[in-house]
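As the work plan foresaw, the team has encoded backbone shapes as discrete tokens. One protein thus recorded appears below exactly as we store it.

:::
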Amino acid sequence: MTAVHQENNDLIWSLEGFSRQEMAKRFVTRFESRLCVYSPTVRQIYTNYSLEFPNGESNRMVVLPNPYAFHDTFNSIDCEAVRDTGMFIVPGALIKKTGLFLVVKYKNQAIKAAPIPIRQALKRMVRTGTATDPFLPILIKGDLREFNSETPCLHLHRIKLPELCQCSDFEKTAIKKSIFKKMADLYDSADEIAAGF
């Protein structure tokens, strides 16, 4: 394991609590570099990375930023600008359908939201944002979860651009463009990602 991972525990994700670890690995690997990853410890967003599963450590996953793509890492991202969304990307098998879906879990459990096909959900994310405050989904440690006892899912956080006080307008625009590009890739590859789940 490299020194960066010894220093940054945000990049080491545990799979210990998963009842079906191999399924969780297959699921999250399909999103590799299709969603940006945020590290609160070093206040960075990674847009170019790989997911590694160290030999002999079946219950751990390491997010490995590309060391040669420094321009794909954004710095000075304050934790206060990162928000929980209550949104989960789930495989369609969870609801006896094919494809990927977005499910919203409301704090008020009496509200039951209907699952939305991922392409439709991504379109809504783009439409609900504004030029200065777009909806920009990201992942942080702990966002790979089990929706029920055996189905893996990805919880989404988001970046609030107006709250990035230490970033210039140029940097904010670059973050927005990078994440929108990831969203477009996720939109285009949704069927490929969902295959087998």
